[in-house]
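Input/output pair, single chain:
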Amino acid sequence: MLAGVVTLLGFIAVYGKITYEGHLVLRIIPQSENEVESVLQAQRIAEEKGYDIWHHSIGVGTPLDIRLSPEEYQEAHQGFSDLDLNHEIIINDVEAAGSSSSCGEWFDYGCYHRLEEINTWMAETAHTYSSMAEVITVSSSYEGRDIKGLKISGPGSGSSNPAIWLQGGIHAREWISPATLIYMANALLRDYTDGRRNVVRIVDGFDWYIVPVLNADGYEYTWSDDRMWRKTRSIHPTSDCVGVDPNRNWDHQWGESEGSSGAACSETYRGPKACSEPCIHGATEYLLNLSKNVTVRGFIDMHSYSQMWMTPWGYTKDVPETDFDIQDASSVAAVDAISNAGGPIYDHGTIANTIYISNGNSVDWAYGKLGVLYSAAVELPDKGQYGFLLPQDQIIRVGTETFQGLVAWATYVLEH
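Output:
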């Protein structure tokens, strides 16, 4: 059994829920090409030991963030010293950073919500906006949960509108992703009803398919057992380790480059085969069937963290020969709108060149298999101060800023 798994089991609380009291997140940033190899070596060692890597470094100026228990930190600190690497602590206590304040009304857009509450919200929203919204079931999970979404269309729209697909929660611990999609779905409906001209235009121009939580089992597990869980909850007979990275499980370039792992205990385990995970298999079938009747013009997979708006490819650092310029221009429209609204600066470019190489990811599949020109992966705030534990009091701000980016991006797609 991996040392990291043994350590993790040592932090299971009396009631069965894992606590991260005393765990910290450290950051190493290579400042020169000479330091890059040392940082990449530290990264490889961290992966071998089963440490929880929150952010991978890909070169000068890009951070390596790792969550460590106090015992792991003592070991890692010596290793970093041997490599002559300096580090800083960006989160002192993961458990404390992840604590949430109480919410007000039953569905407060400034709070994180469990899956059942999200599904109830979708049903009530579809009832409130019955002329514009309906609940759809796009897949099912390994543990038998329905994976639901909202379809939003302009009143009286026919069935021939092109589609935009937004999904989130594919990595379970990235709670800001579902929260932002929920906020933006409500904003589309609210601002359309209020007559906001640019929102009316994109709602009338597209049918919107918004799936807040694609990895339903993993997301629920982050509430019940382990806040830092990332993968699905599937069990495979070849391993004692649970789950697959659902964003390495899509059927495009699956396992064909360095951007995933064949080791079942790895956080980037791609699974025993492409689309082995029911949530991914069901979603791809839904999208393939949808594309038989309508053109899917846009696809966004919302993640956290790092503040990036990225396009294909993820599996290679080569860029699409004919499409990259227009794809990146759509990203520029989005990130400029976010910064103009007072939000943070986002990086943009291809996935592999902006964050890291990853094969079998959703965005490559949408572009490479489904033919969606405007496919994007969005890494929401922040830059690492809170990482995956963004406080609830920042949800509305992130939702508001990201919605400005979404409107600008969709307007670009509509016009091109």
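The first strand starts at residue 24 and ends at 28. Confidence is low (pLDDT under 50) at residues 1-15.
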